[in-house]
Amino acid sequence: MMFKSPVAYCLVALMFNLLVSGVLPVLADEADSPGAQPPASNMEKVQEVTADGAAEGIVKGHFDVVLDVRRPEEYEQTHIPGAVLVPLDKLREDAREELGNLATPILVYCAVGGRSLEAVKILSKMGFKNVVNLRGGIMAWKKEGYPVAK
Predict the structure, then answer these.
(1) What does DSSP assign to residue 83?
(2) Average pLDDT for residues 42-51, to the nearest whole number?
(3) Most exposed of 13, 84, 115, 124 (fewest Cβ within 10 Å)?
């Protein structure tokens, strides 16, 4: 299939990339799939904050807990001062004991943001109401020059 315009080609390429990446969902018509229900959103809403926003929130006392969900050896190398370590693989069993009540404001971080994003989803499903992900993790924190403990 040939496109007569570079703009048309770019638009098609953009739409394809958005579909493949999951940014632009495609739902089948009910007629195409009898009895099928639209898929649940795979992009759950998660509150996120930049390193600057996290630092400001910590200074202003907006977070009662700063939660590190990395492995113990990562935490020992460097962590945000005052952070509580609960590795992601222990989160479900240790969260209630380590984090307090379900309304506790919690800032969650990991190395670059992937594990902490998963942790925010887990905590939200457990009923924690005020959980925020540090976008970019401790790497973004350090890049902005904020203090770390060892």
Answers:
(1) P
(2) 77
(3) 13
Question: Is the distance from CB of 84 to CB of 67 less than 8 angstroms?
Answer: yes
Residue 10 appears among annotated catalytic residues: no
The pLDDT of 71-85, averaged and rounded, is: 95
CATH value at residue 71: 3.40.250.10
- Estimate the share of the chain in helix, then strand, then coil, as percent rounded to the nearest 5: 40, 10, 45
Catalytic-labelled residue, pool 54, 110, 117, 140: 110
- Structural domain tally of the chain? 1
Q: Examine residue 54 and state whether it is found in any structural domain, yes or no.
A: yes
- The parent domain of residue 115 ranges over 48-143
Phi (first) and psi of residue 131, to 5 degrees: -120, 130
Burial 77-102 (b: 16+ CB within 10 A, else e): eebbeebbbbbbeebeeebeeebeee
Could you tell me if residue 18 is inside a domain?
no
Is residue 21 domain-resident? no
For residues 52 and 26, what is the distance between their CA atoms, to the nearest angstrom?
36
Helix (H) or strand (E) segment spanning residue 109: strand 106-109
Q: How many CB atoms lie within 10 A of CB 74?
A: 17
